[in-house]
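Researcher: Let's do a round of design. I'm pasting the structure tokens now; please hold your answer until I've finished.
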């Protein structure tokens, strides 16, 4: 067999998996259809939030603790800062899912945290202008990861450990002809491997039939606005946030490396499409929607527009990840950790994928991400089915 594992998609997850497998001495081929990194998938836009009091489900917290350790490890290997600590704010109405879920996770996992009113957040972090009735969980260890630089760091570490990584090579299909092996066909060649790891982001449904209606790409837009008072939006004075308000659920980060306070709205305008058909232009309504939110809750952050960029979420019906073996071909491992909150887990997902491929099992609890969980069988995909 030519390779122990072929990894399809060298974005956030695939780059981490390549490093984790190569450092264990496995023969790895990593294939990426675009550049490494690039701005057509889910991991671009300079930064991604990492936060511990996980309102989505407390089962993510142990994975996050390991993710932090692995981010620090790759940082040491790369010799550059990839994870910047700012603290995190998870805020919303007292009875709402975001605040309540964050508090429940913080308490269950004994995370250091404080519960603050909206006014207390504003006093402490004057870039914020939250309504007084908002309740917030402040957690001091949260922050952000330099997402594109982390992909480069993982790829360089993987290459140093012997991985063969190739960009501009598109996987067209794969077969499992029997005997446990996998054959992968690209626009440049054919390869045989013992394991296939699919980390194709928004294109997962095209490469794995079981995910066709379960991993739905959705257009997002990120905004960077020039702060009117830049000193309030620096990483040492502005914690990353998730905020549930009447305009929807939003997230934001301090100014870092590019001019502009960065924020976005989850499920921006609910536009789903196959990955290659996702609309990449930005229109006036995108800007209006984001500015309306920014002006209300972060007015000192919302001067002139610096950049608006499209990005893609890949949503599952219950917004939890899919990380599992292919139901018919166990040597094929599927990873769709997105629904708009996956990046922070790249480091630990890479370890999990390497565990599954190289050791046959993982010590991490990934039962929440099973493909046969009832929520995936019972509920329709969110916001309409993919168009193809
Ligand atoms: C606007 C936005 C904001 C977000 N904010 C956060 C955040 O703050 N915190 C957080 O934790 N998460 C966040 N997320 C989610 C997070 O970014 C994603 O979960 C994560 O990037 C997914 O990584 P991935 O490796 O699955 O996808 P990608 O990084 O997109 O990698 C998939 C790769 O597969 C390649 N590929 C696809 N098909 C093929 C093929 N046939 N052949 C070869 N290569 C192929 C693609 O080109 C791509 O490079 C955000 C996402 C978006 C869009």
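Researcher: That's everything. Go ahead.
Model: Designed sequence:
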């Amino acid at each position: 067999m030519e390779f122990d594992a072929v990894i399809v998609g060298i974005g956030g997850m695939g780059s981490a998996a390549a490093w984790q497998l190569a450092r264990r001495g496995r023969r790895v081929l990593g294939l990426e259809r675009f550049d490494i990194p690039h701005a057509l998938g889910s991991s671009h836009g300079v930064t991604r939030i990492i936060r511990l009091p996980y309102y989505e489900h407390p089962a993510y917290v142990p994975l996050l603790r390991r993710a932090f350790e692995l981010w620090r490890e790759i940082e040491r290997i790369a010799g550059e800062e990839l994870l910047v600590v700012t603290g995190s704010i998870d805020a919303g109405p007292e009875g709402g899912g975001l605040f309540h879920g964050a508090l429940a996770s913080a308490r269950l996992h004994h995370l250091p945290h404080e519960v603050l009113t909206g006014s207390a957040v504003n006093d402490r972090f004057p870039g914020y202008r939250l309504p007084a009735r908002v309740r917030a969980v402040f957690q001091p260890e949260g922050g952000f990861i330099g997402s594109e630089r982390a992909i480069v760091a993982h790829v360089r570490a993987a290459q140093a450990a012997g991985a063969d990584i190739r960009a501009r090579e598109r996987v067209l299909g794969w077969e499992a002809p029997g005997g446990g092996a996998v054959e992968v066909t690209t626009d440049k060649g054919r390869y045989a491997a013992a394991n296939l790891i699919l980390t194709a982001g928004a294109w997962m449904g095209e490469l794995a039939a079981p995910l066709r209606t379960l991993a739905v790409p959705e257009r997002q837009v990120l905004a960077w606005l020039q702060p009117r008072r830049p000193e309030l939006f620096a990483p040492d004075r502005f914690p990353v946030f998730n905020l549930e308000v009447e305009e929807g659920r939003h997230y934001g980060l301090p100014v870092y490396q590019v001019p502009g306070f960065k924020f976005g709205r989850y499920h921006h305008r609910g536009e789903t499409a196959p990955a290659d058909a996702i609309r990449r232009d930005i229109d006036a309504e995108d800007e209006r929607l984001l500015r309306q939110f920014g002006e209300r809750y972060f007015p000192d952050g919302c001067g002139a527009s610096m950049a608006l960029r499209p990005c893609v979420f890949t949503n599952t019906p219950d917004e939890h990840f899919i990380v599992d073996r292919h139901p018919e071909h166990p040597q094929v491992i599927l990873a769709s950790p997105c629904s708009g909150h996956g990046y922070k887990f790249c480091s630990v997902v890479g370890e999990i994928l390497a565990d599954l491929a190289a050791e046959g099992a993982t010590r991490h609890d990934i039962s929440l991400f099973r493909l046969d969980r009832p929520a995936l069988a019972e509920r329709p995909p969110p916001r309409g089915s993919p168009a193809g």
